[in-house]
Design a protein that fits this description.
The complex is a heterodimer of chains A (573) and B (434). By secondary structure, chain A is an alpha/beta fold. Chain A has a single domain, classed as TIM Barrel (Alpha-Beta Barrel). In chain A, 32% of the residues lie in helices and 21% in strands. Chain A has 18 helices and 24 strands. In chain A, a hairpin with a 7-residue loop joins β16 and β17. In chain A, α5 crosses α17. In chain B, α3 crosses α13, α3 runs parallel beside α18 and α9 runs parallel beside α12. The radius of gyration of chain B is 23 Å and the shape is globular. Chain B has 18 helices and 22 strands. The chains are: A alpha/beta (573), B alpha/beta (434). β16 of chain A pairs parallel with β8 of chain B, so a sheet runs across the interface.
């Protein structure tokens, strides 16, 4: 079978404690192995930086992004990042590409691969439209994917929380993950989505959800407990209440604090906070708007039960898309922007609104700073996942720009100088001189993801791992990223080689092959006693008979939609 | 006997999924719960005359041939064309659409769906202003006000009203029809208007003005509204606005009465703009009444695979989109294509005469289960299985909810998906040879 040896690699592999050491990597049948025969193909890495394929643990790559595409035909021709955006013709190995913030599925696969990414976690599967997510997954070439299923405004979830039926709640979640072929539990503005069914919202974790007699606090805590009862590989993945509002950091702190007592079923966090930048605002109004990253980082530095991702803002046009329906309406009103909305019966909602982050805007400038502040003020990189919440904070093709900001205080200074004075007063970034190493960057883009999603075959280069490998045109000990930040950015923008499951997919920044990726899903039904399952199914059937507009049998995602599945069974773990 | 439950009806955008189909010896013997339209479509698979074999035009007459021959000839036409048009794809599966897009890209063709002459302006309106929408179950469970604007579900979407909108009973709408106010805005008193609580007759082509007037009323700018707008008295406009503002949850279902009348996409823009303001006071959403059962699916697949929802031109090897220039009608009216592939559609009946004249002049490939006026113009006719009856696949409901169409009976006809896959393979073979 196929064999490959990568020689003279400067390996940066935090999960195995390897920090830019020169070594060879042997690959056989898509896995990393001890050694290969002399017939193996050879790649001479020539001392270049070599990491595991990166994992985007929070991106909007399938499903709602299609609403974003429909709203922005202008985005398809936009080409601010050369080679990674805009219209590109088909070649003998690639399909035609288009777009920047909302690229077509083929462009998503190719461009992520060029950046050295090999796995994506779609941040939100709408249950009733889950087939749509999986259809887009299938259309995204090369990469492996999974999606997190939305449960935070689901009627059956809220009913079981109110009625104090934790076993049925767990049974429903297991059923929902199976029905949608989801990977984990996503909670977006808990309770707020249901309130939005009537054009309303909730404003704290203790507001009552209209008609359901529960609070966001109760929804969050009970979902977290059920998550651990089911032994799911990932923790609950939370988009807090009050996203994007001045003063919202207090809600964020409340959300973190209520999870302190939850006991993890696995060696990982019990709470992941999504795009923390959008939840780290102080001040009581837009006029008073300022960074609250210190308040949040101080808390996070003393606790070990949570992880978060940055939600870094990139200056320029972006497309916001979230299950937080009421937020998107207020965004649209505030920005005088076009607005799409998509409420889903009994479940959740969604909104899509285009945005431009301007360095001339004091609020946008502070937002830009907060993402970096959070990543730099939290001491332990194993708590920080790198994201832009693509394309909410900015398109993923800008990741190298953000990497270089994290790695160079000088580059940050150069940008801060150009920002409005008012903005500089409201941020703490100018006082931070920390510069991340390649090792820390590898933690935030690969190693942490392997741990926080409990997938031990990705995010590292140890024996038995998937042969997902990225080799960048950088000799780590011959570059000072703090000074040569532009060179770092260029090198991280296009790999010398990307290897996916042992196949060479990118060479010298160009796609050379386009194999099909796999889709992970989590089967937790083995954790549910059959008598509980039976009574829960009766409730589910009742909802379908009375309230849904599709039949239960037509709702579930069947095997057709996962031609290349990886099932993770939580019973066996 | 085989009984298929929760069967999905492959007719209109309502995509009812509660049919029961009985099959004996590969014949459909009973169809339960389908409306007259759906029933005819499903029963018609055996009742109506099918294209029985692949056909090729020789000396002006269509003569029988084999699938292999028809597919090879179709591939030759596409390979030899400079700019072919691929049109239709709304009454077939997303899987077939995906292959059709790949074929269009491979052959440098223009691809477009029936939305070109239907809800195409709706997508333009979304480009302009977005679309505040919801799944149909939100209407069923919450709506106390439903407005049908320029659409006539009694005849076009017969079960829409009982399953989703007018009569449906849900969690917050236990009284069904009694607890729900129904308003119809149309140029004529349709059968839907006759069973509504409020009927507003708007003058033809004046929908945009009326929508803007209601929006003015919602924004408390009554003083700018003239005494009569588009034939509708100011008093009625104010009543409509109050009704919308005071509703707990309202939905505007809009049809071709808004998309294909004067102002076209500006009408959809006006509905969206109205709701943009109305939602400050009361929850309100809009849902287009899509016709063909999977025209929504074409838009979805085309959007994620090319970046654009329809009217995509691959002449330059990348996707170029400029509706008005790259739409199916546009290219035909200009005589700007030199071959055409039409699948699951009938432009021979529905397109403007000048466009049909162009179709008659150029080599035309048709993929369809049935004879229709397009067949009379076609040079190659490839019979297909009926998706949703004889072949399975994905379709998207008018509210973009995906469902998997079932196969009720076996057939010897190839599916659209298979036919396009075969043509694509043959095209690549010919191109390699050349």
């Amino acid at each position: 079978m196929s064999e490959l040896i990568i020689k003279n690699a400067a390996v940066c592999d935090p999960l195995n404690g390897i920090n830019c050491e020169k070594m060879d990597i042997a690959v056989k049948d898509g896995k990393i192995v001890e050694s290969v025969s002399s017939n193996a193909d050879t790649i001479d890495a020539k001392g270049k930086l070599t990491m595991a394929g990166a994992i985007d643990g929070h991106t909007h790559c399938a499903g709602k992004i299609n609403v974003g595409r429909l709203m922005s035909p202008h985005d398809m021709r936009m080409n601010p990042v050369n080679g990674l955006s805009g219209l590109q013709p088909a070649t003998s190995v690639t399909r035609a590409q288009a777009g920047y913030n909302t690229p077509n599925t083929f462009a998503l696969g190719y461009r992520y691969s060029k950046l050295g990414y090999t796995t994506l976690s779609e941040a939100a599967i709408s249950m009733m439209a889950a087939k749509h997510t999986h259809e887009e997954f299938e259309s995204i070439p090369i990469l492996d994917k999974w999606g997190l299923t939305l449960f935070g405004n689901n009627w059956q979830v809220m009913n079981y929380v109110r009625d104090e039926e934790p076993e049925k709640l767990a049974a429903y979640l297991a059923w929902g993950l199976r029905a949608t072929r989801g990977f984990g539990i996503k909670v977006v503005n808990p309770g707020g989505g249901e309130a939005w069914g009537w054009g309303k919202n909730v404003t704290s974790i203790d507001d009552e959800v209209p008609d359901f007699d529960v609070t966001p606090r109760e929804i969050l805590v009970e979902l977290a407990k059920a998550n651990e009862d089911l032994n799911l590989p990932h923790s609950i993945h939370v988009h807090c209440n009050n996203l994007g509002k001045p003063g919202n950091y207090e809600t964020t702190l409340d959300t973190m604090k209520i999870m302190e007592g939850i006991k993890a079923a696995r060696d990982r966090q019990v709470l992941h906070l999504a795009h923390l930048q959008f939840h780290a605002y102080a001040g009581n109004s837009w006029r008073e708007f300022e960074s609250a990253s210190t308040q949040l980082a101080d808390y996070i530095n003393t606790k070990d039960h949570l992880t978060f991702d940055m939600g870094q803002v990139i200056f320029g046009p972006a497309m916001t898309m979230t299950a937080d329906g009421p937020l998107e309406y207020s965004n649209a009103r505030m920005l005088h922007s076009k607005w799409s909305n998509k409420d889903v019966e009994l479940e959740d909602g969604a909104g899509v609104v285009p945005i431009v982050y301007s360095p001339k805007s004091f609020v946008n400038s502070v937002q830009w700073a907060i993402g970096l502040e959070l990543a730099l003020l939290v001491d332990d990189p194993w708590k920080v996942m790198f994201t832009t919440d693509s394309p909410n904070g900015g398109s993923f093709v800008n990741y190298p720009e953000a990497y270089s900001l994290l790695m160079s205080a000088k580059k940050r200074e150069q940008i801060i100088e150009t920002l409005p004075e008012l903005a500089i007063d409201r941020m703490v970034l100018p006082g931070i001189d920390r510069e991340l190493s390649f090792y820390e960057l590898a933690v935030m883009t690969r190693a942490l993801q392997s741990k926080m999603f409990s997938v031990d075959t990705i995010g590292h280069l140890g024996i038995g791992a998937n042969a997902d490998i990225a080799i960048y045109d950088i000799i780590p000990d011959k570059i000072d990223a703090g000074i040569e930040h532009e060179k770092v950015k260029q090198a991280l923008s296009a790999t010398s080689y990307t290897i996916k499951s042992g196949n060479l997919v990118v060479q010298d920044g160009e796609i050379v092959s386009s194999p099909r990726g796999k889709t992970y899903w989590v089967n937790a039904s083995g954790r549910v006693p059959s008598e509980i399952n039976e009574v829960t199914l009766k409730d589910i059937q009742n909802n379908f008979r009375k309230y849904y507009t599709v039949a239960m049998s037509n709702y579930v995602v069947d095997d057709h939609y996962l031609p290349n599945p990886i099932e993770i069974n939580t019973q066996e773990a | 006997m085989n009984v298929i439950t929760d069967a999905i009806c492959p007719f209109c955008g309502s995509l009812c999924d509660d049919l029961t189909i009985k099959v004996e010896n590969n014949k459909i013997t009973d169809i339960q719960r389908a409306c007259v339209l759906g029933h005819n479509k499903i029963a018609g698979v055996t009742d109506h005359a099918r294209i029985e074999a692949p056909l090729v035009r020789k000396d002006g007459e269509l003569v029988e041939t084999t699938y292999e021959d028809a597919i090879e000839r179709a591939a030759e036409i596409l390979v030899n064309s400079k700019r072919a048009l691929s049109y239709g794809w709304s009454s077939t599966s997303c899987e077939a659409v995906s292959k059709a897009i790949e074929l269009a890209e491979e052959t440098g063709s223009v691809i477009d769906s029936c939305a070109n002459v239907c809800h195409g302006p709706t997508t333009l309106a979304v480009h302009e202003k977005g679309s505040p929408a919801a799944s149909l179950g939100q209407v069923k469970n919450r709506a106390d006000l439903v407005i049908f604007w320029g659409c006539n579900p009694v005849h076009a979407h017969p079960r829409h009203m009982s399953r989703y909108s007018m009569y449906a009973k849900g969690f917050f709408t236990k009284k069904g029809r009694k607890g729900r106010h129904i308003a119809v805005v149309d140029v004529r008193e349709t059968d839907t208007a006759k069973i509504a609580d409020t009927y507003v007759q708007v003058d033809p082509g004046c929908d945009f003005m009326l929508l803007q007037a209601i929006r003015s009323a919602i924004n408390d700018n009554e003083d700018v509204i003239p005494e009569i707008v588009g034939g509708v008295p100011k008093e009625t406009i104010l009543e409509l606005a109050t009704m919308m503002k005071e509703a707990r949850f309202s939905c505007v279902f809009y049809g071709m009465g808004t998309t294909q009348t004067r102002s076209k996409y500006k009408n959809g823009d006006a509905v969206s703009s109205l709701l943009y303001d109305l939602n400050q006071y009361s929850k309100s959403v809009m849902i287009p009444m899509r016709g063909h059962y999977n025209v929504t699916g074409f838009g979805q697949v085309c959007n994620w695979e090319t970046g654009y929802p329809n009217a995509v031109d691959f002449t330059r090897k990348f996707a170029y989109y400029n509706p008005g220039e790259t739409g199916a009608s546009d290219t035909l009216l200009r005589g700007d294509v030199d071959a055409a592939l039409v699948a699951a559609a009938d432009p021979g009946s529905h397109f403007a005469q000048e466009a049909v004249k162009c179709l008659a002049k150029i080599p035309l490939i048709q993929i369809d289960p049935y004879h229709n006026p397009t067949t009379e113009l076609a040079d190659i006719v490839i019979p297909a299985a009926v998706v949703g009856v004889e072949a399975e696949g994905t379709a998207y409901r008018m509210d973009s909810i995906p469902l998997r169409m079932k196969k009720f009976i076996d057939t010897d006809f190839k599916s659209d998906e298979q036919i396009v896959t075969d043509i694509l393979e043959k095209v690549r073979e010919l191109k390699r040879g050349a």
